[in-house]
Amino acid sequence: MTLDAALYREQGYVLCRRFFDPDEVAAIHAEAKAVFAAQMRRHGLIGQGEVDEAAFTEAMFRLFEIDLPAFSNCGKQAQHLISLHRLSLDERIVEGLRTLGLGFPNISTRPVLYFNHPRLAKKEVYWRLALHQDWRSMQGSLDSTVVWLPLVDIDRRLGALEVLPGSHKRGLVEADMEDGYGHISEAARAGIDEGQLISVEVERGDALFFSTFLLHQSGTNVSDAIRWSCHFRYNDLAEASFVERGFPHPYVYHPVEEALTPGFPPPDMVRDYFESAGEDRPPIKSVAAG
Length: 290
Ligand SMILES: O=C(O)CCC(=O)C(=O)O
Known about the structure:
Blueprint: H1 5-11, E1 13-16, H2 22-42, H3 53-66, H4 68-78, H5 82-88, H6 91-99, E2 105-116, H7 135-138, E3 145-150, E4 161-163, E5 175-178, E6 181-184, H8 186-190, E7 198-200, E8 207-211, E9 216-217, E10 227-236, H9 240-244, H10 267-275
Antiparallel strand pairs: 1-8, 2-10, 3-8, 3-10, 4-7, 4-9, 5-6
The chain binds 2-oxoglutaric acid.
Residues 114, 129, 134, 161, 216, 218, 229, 231 line the site of 2-oxoglutaric acid.
């Protein structure tokens, strides 16, 4: 699939229908669900067998209510799926980035996987992002690019992403950093015609490439379903201003120092684990993508 680089430069984004086989993307969705399913089973929220999408979604809401720490750790584990990271490195994406002009594409930050619904968030920012530009937090190359992939079909009711065509050419718009991203300031908003925002309805397998200067925001999920998506961010190590600025990298990643499960593991448990030769270890069950 060849990306339309001229259209990308003009409108700041390009949508590629069926960029991936939907089944490839469904596999990531299924694995993300399997992470949550393991904790749902621990709490008896679902059984061992197949779970339909509606029952799974209901169990997501219940898990969020009864065990927020485990729910949020599932969310963190889902960010580290090998399948997710592998897709972010896929040659088709790298080739697409080169087509858009990135001479030396490089990862900006780890992939992210979203599972958005108002019932799965304590704060609005955890399920819906207001108008912003990703460059504000990334501070990478001028041609840095986001690849945004739906893990399910996403229409307007499910909160399709909204983009402002051509807004990348405004450059960096005034914003205040909060919760890790830059909220466009009231003053700057006055100069933006939000009536020009376009809802990008997508199907699983589609890929939206957009400039990190493009103004965009989450749509509003008014459905009962979860909006599953994943987002990859790339810089260009060959872009002159990035080289000149010494390749700034604003992300911090470090372990916490306190024990997260105090007293664990007791020594006998470790010995027994290694001496049991794996007989008692059930395989992780996967869950079909919705
Ligand atoms: O998927 C969304 O709704 C917004 C994602 C986004 O804008 C971001 O991660 O910067």
